[in-house]
Amino acid sequence: MRWLHAEWTKLRTLPSTWWLLTATVVLTVAVAAAATSSLTSAVCASPAACHEDTVQLSLTGVRLSQAVCLVLGALSMGAEYGTGTIRTTLMAMPTRWRALAAKATALSLVTAAAGAVGILLSLATARLILPANGFEAPSLTDAPTLRAATGSVLVLTLVALLGLALATLLRDTAGALTLGLGVLYVVPLLAHLVASPVWQHRLERWAPMPAALSVQATRDLDRLPIGPWPGLGVLAAYAGVLCVGGAVALGTRDA
Amino acid sequence: MTTTVTPYRSRLHPGRTGFAHLLRAEWTKFWTVRAWPLVLAVAVVITVLISQLGASGSTAGGGPEVTLGPDGTVVTDAFRFTHRPLTGDGSVTVRVTGLRSADGRSLEPWAKAGVIVKQNLDQGSPYAAVLATPGHGVRMQWNFTHDTAGGTGDLTTAPRWLRLTRTGDRLTGYESADGRGWSKIGTVGLAGLPRTVEAGLFLATPAHLVVHRAFGGTSERYGGGLVTGTYDHLGLKGTSAGARWTSTDVGGAAPNGPAPENGPPGSTQVSAAGAYTLTGRGDIAPDENGPDTVQMSFQGVFVGLLFLVALGALFVTGEYKRGLIRTTFTATPARVKVLAAKTTVIAVLTFAAGLLATALGFTLAQSRLRDNGFRPPEFPDLSLLDSPALRAVAGSAALLSLVAVLALALGVVLRNSAGAIATVVVLVVLPQILSFAFPLPAAQWLLRVTPAAAFAIQQGKTYYPQVAHNCLPESGCYPLAPWNGLAVLAGYAAAALLLAAWRLRRRDA
Fold this sequence. Notes:
Order of helices and strands of chain B: HHEEEEEEEEEEEEEEEHEEEHHHHHHH
Largest interface: A-B, 47 and 47 residues
Strand content of chain A: under 5%
Order of helices and strands of chain A: HHHHHHHHHHH
Radius of gyration of chain A: 19 Å
Number of strands of chain A: 0
Number of helices of chain B: 10
Shape of chain B: elongated
Oligomer: heterodimer
Shape of chain A: globular
Helix content of chain A: over 70%
Structural class of chain A: mainly alpha
Radius of gyration of chain B: 30 Å
Largest sheet of chain A: none
Structural class of chain B: alpha+beta
Number of helices of chain A: 11
Distance between the termini of chain A: 24 Å
Distance between the termini of chain B: 31 Å
């Protein structure tokens, strides 16, 4: 518990943490507002004929704010390596994996809290904007919507953990970010551009971002490349394996 | 009361701060940090490898035979044609009295009714036509890729007189509202037109294109499209071997229609008073549905840019992190000059590396695509020294270089590699991912105003204004013209550099 408190203090007293958490909330909501207000029935005959997944559209902000969470995660460990604090930290907490676990817990809690605020505000924004254009407003009492919202908060948390794990493995913020952003954004982009349908399907199933974001879908579930919860599981597996790898590397290497 | 604060000026004799010396200093810094040349090399290798991988995943072939126009463009050439042979000079005149949909759906704006002179009845042979459309007025079109606008009258409300005159291998199009006062639309030369050609009236309509777009999935559906056109006052002046008008469906069934709508052939009816009623389908236009083999050769750029972004950002944030920046500014108090030198070094190095990567990647990817069935004549060999390949290769290198400069400038502004790298990657890559997901107008707006617009430079396909098409981001279409797209990214980089210069002068190091 005292370790968690130490990590919490470290995280809390960095000004960048608060900036990044604010950015997570603001960007999630801003993209949600932009996405939902861009939805008009001008391109299709009627709101129902648009076949838009309004819940997924309201949660689009996650695609942007996950980058912020990745930065937050990578910085929480990368900054210690950058400034050399890591040596002090490990001297104070000699069981290294517990130091990492404490950091991961503190990070998950703040990210999940900020993510939940962002997601709830996004849905509230969507409820304000969508009915004005004749579309159905998302409601949290609806089971798929609740699953999409919870899943989105988990996506943000897992992405932060992914950043933490990569920074622990690479001992460097810039490297961790480049790799993390590449895995999150560039791999799915390639999936869209690869002409071979087999590879496209494989990439959409096993790349962390497209797989995890399938948790946001609330309609045409049978057309998803991977189911909502298994998809989130793919991201969880990436984050989990890398965290364990990070713990092992932290335990066996010098700091 | 005002007080004037004299800014601090060092009394030391300034060092050798000529720009050439600064460049040399930054050049040395780059090459002596072991990781940086390595990252540059890795970026080149990865770009080439991923381009290869992307190309090898694509195969062509198995599709229907394509029709090639006189200049080798892939075209659609199928229409209802009521014709007589015309030998030597002459002219064909008709009054188009109406055009209506025959399949219960609304008329396509580019449905065509008019007169045409065509080398023969083969698909893809040279032609010139004067035609009236429901949505785009009267046009003169020739050899598929060329289009000249005439009057703007709406065919569905007022009849139009159209005339096409042949003199040697020159064809002149005229239009008239009443059949007495004629105005010229244009004259075109069709080199090598034989002495005897087919002349007459024609009817065509592009297939209906229905785009169904929702999160994560897009489907495009072609519906056959069937129209009926009515004509009268049909006249042919000149020598003709055939005394009667004959009707043909050039190209047979519609090229894109699903099977049931392919069924009925076109029809021609003539009334006793000389009024013609044609029903038909098909289109005379360039075909824009094929894959873009130029764009398909550059997929590695998306990955390569990550490394160059990191390089650009670290080239300056590394100095802030280690405090070297204070040494740099002590040696050269003119900070903006330092920024200029750093920018020049990074821009030149990343452009050179980018050019190597894209030229190599393109050449290898092209040969891989050729192995996978993308062969001439449908996919002609592209020379690296000709546009669009040259433009795409050099443009992609410029894109990589500009992205690195943007990262460097943001690195100066934020003094922090994490922020700079994340911001640039999000600005350049995220819009493309969001564009697959957003409703179409928002998606196209995103690809216009964000640095992602620069990827338009990789497009090898020409989109003709006389063909209606939906610019779908998922099929690789960018709404801006190639160079305009690159200019958007250049604008971002320039703005970031200005901001960086301003911050450098105003803040402590």
